[in-house]
Specification:
Distance between the termini: 5 Å
Number of domains: 1
Strand order of the largest sheet: 5-6-7-8-9
Order of helices and strands: EEEEHHEEEEEEEEEEEEEH
Strand content: 35-45%
Shape: globular
Number of strands: 17
Radius of gyration: 18 Å
């Protein structure tokens, strides 16, 4: 069983995200938005959605005139691990981690930020909403719909949706870990809940909740990742 995701009316099937490890990255502090499991242990999350689009990440880095991953002059690992490029080519959104292991302490500095480059060339950034960025985040959806970029990600305790582009900074809306996007609707349901809550995409305005039965009839029932 696969999970449905779409942009507008375009449905794409997806499977739960997992952290992919390249052997050449074993010494890194952070990899793909999460702490290096070889150094700090694996995440137990089983997030919905798809892996971020590698092509979009590479294109975003090219537009910015840099590599997707590099170590800056102060020794911080800078890694774009999710990106969305507007079809007009003038607007760019991406999520980047900046991490560094402190040599004098076991603590790790980590910041995860959402970046927006608008059509006027203005660059803005804001921290993701997170219990603790050290525990990373998994991006399951990131796309432009009209003038709005929609981002859905899961961190240590919560799953958040946010929309930005014409509005900045983004407002973070807490949803459930079990979700899907279809027919311009973000549907989500909590553990042992008997109703499916819904938000309109892309503005994330609240829609009426519907019963599980109605959600199944409308094709808006988020699949259970544990059954995939």
């Amino acid at each position: 069983m696969q999970q449905a995701k779409c942009t507008g009316n375009r449905v794409v099937h997806s499977t739960p995200c997992t952290v992919r490890i390249d052997m050449k990255h074993l010494n890194r502090t952070f990899i793909h938005g999460n702490r290096n499991p070889e150094r700090y242990g694996f995440s137990v999350r089983s997030p919905c959605g798809e892996h971020p689009d590698t092509t979009a990440i590479l294109k975003a880095a090219s537009i910015l005139g840099r590599e997707p991953f590099y170590i800056d002059e102060r020794g911080y690992e800078c890694d774009i691990f999710a990106a969305a490029i507007h079809p007009d080519g003038d607007r760019l959104a991406y999520v980047e981690s900046r991490a560094k292991k402190r040599w004098w302490t076991p603590m790790v500095y980590i910041a995860i930020k959402i970046h927006l480059h608008d059509s006027a060339g203005k660059a803005s950034s804001v921290d993701i909403k997170s219990y603790n960025p050290f525990f990373g985040c998994d991006v399951g959806y990131f796309d432009w719909i009209g003038d709005t970029a929609v981002l859905i990600y899961q961190e240590k305790h919560e799953t958040y949706a946010c929309a930005f582009g014409t509005n900045w900074p983004p407002t973070f809306i807490t949803i459930e870990d079990r979700w899907m996007v279809k027919d311009s609707i973000l549907a989500y349901i909590g553990y042992e809940m008997d109703v499916v809550q819904r938000l309109a995409v892309p503005d994330l305005s609240q829609l009426d909740s519907i019963s599980v039965h109605d959600a199944e009839q409308k094709g808006q029932m988020p699949p259970d990742s544990n059954s995939i």
